[in-house]
Amino acid sequence: xxxxxxxxGPPTVSPTTPTTAPLGRGRDRGNGDLVLVVxxxxxxxxxxHDALDESGYTVLVATxxxxxxxRAAQALPDIVLLDAMMPGMDGFxxxxxLKAQPATAHIPIIFMTGLTETEHLVAALEAGGTDYxxxxxxxxxxxxxxxxxLQGARRxxxxxxxxxxxxxxxxxxxxxxxxxxxADGRLMWQTPLARDLLARWFGTQAPVTPVPVLDWLRRHxxxxxxxxxxxxxxxxxxxxxxxxxxxxxxGDEPGGDWLIxxxxxxxxxxxxxxxxxxxxxxREAEVLYWVVKGKINRDIADILGASPATVKKHLERxxxxxxxxxxxxxxxxxxxxxxxxxxxxxG
Length: 347
Description:
Blueprint: E1 34-38, H1 42-54, E2 58-62, H2 65-75, E3 79-83, H3 91-100, E4 109-113, H4 118-126, E5 131-134, H5 139-172, E6 175-181, E7 187-190, H6 192-202, H7 211-219, H8 221-225, E8 233-237, E9 240-250, E10 257-266, H9 268-278, H10 282-292, H11 297-304, H12 308-322, H13 327-341
Parallel strand pairs: 1-2, 1-3, 3-4, 4-5
Antiparallel strand pairs: 6-7, 6-10, 8-9, 9-10
Helix pairs in contact: 2-3, 9-10, 9-13, 10-12, 10-13, 11-12
């Protein structure tokens, strides 16, 4: 439902003003793209509201920075027309905050400004603006600029929907995915499974990317640009492993957004396979598992909550059952058998 204009200007909406129709994803957008207009001057709001409404757009308005952020988070507009100079929070800060949130980072922002000095225009673009229009406002120019950027936004939304469907399908098979912007390290997108894994393994949440993951990404960007697949990044907790694989770049900007595939795997099945293959006890199979992983007796003792002497006795029995004399031979034999049964296992 459009917000009707009422002389001398359209109604303004504060973050606490109740609305008569739900905004956001459930909103009926059959009347056109949703535009958020932000300006502290009622005459400017009235002029733009009427012009946009007559052109078939659905219009929301805000007269200040805080209200703009609240409306954008609630409604997820298709484009934002943003006044640069407003009392309190100015348009530059509004843009920076919109771009800092994954939910609104993709929304095109057109600045409306009476400032024509180069440094101000550069500041608008650096804050996240897609374009700018100088005041006084001329509705035909605004509509023409909007149309260009909305076409690009529609294509991006369609690509994002398709990519999102594919990524969510990965979740169903135990693969999670995230998109990270290499330039500033922000986590731009994640599947539900990825969100849970990052919280559980690193205690982080979007837009924060875990530091070791970001370091790994930046370290191997050159390999990825040469289409050389970089090595996986693997973390371990007991018999659990979380791996990261750099899949592909999203978009064409150099060093831009990168899609990363994650998978958590438990080696309980691997341990059980070793137990059956070599007729070991459950504890002996665990010891052999960690021998394959390259751990020394003292480390294995710490992991299993046993003494090094106990681990040594287990290892002696393992060597006897496997018919080998050294832990290196035992590890090699076990690895060969594991790879036959679990090709994805990484020793």
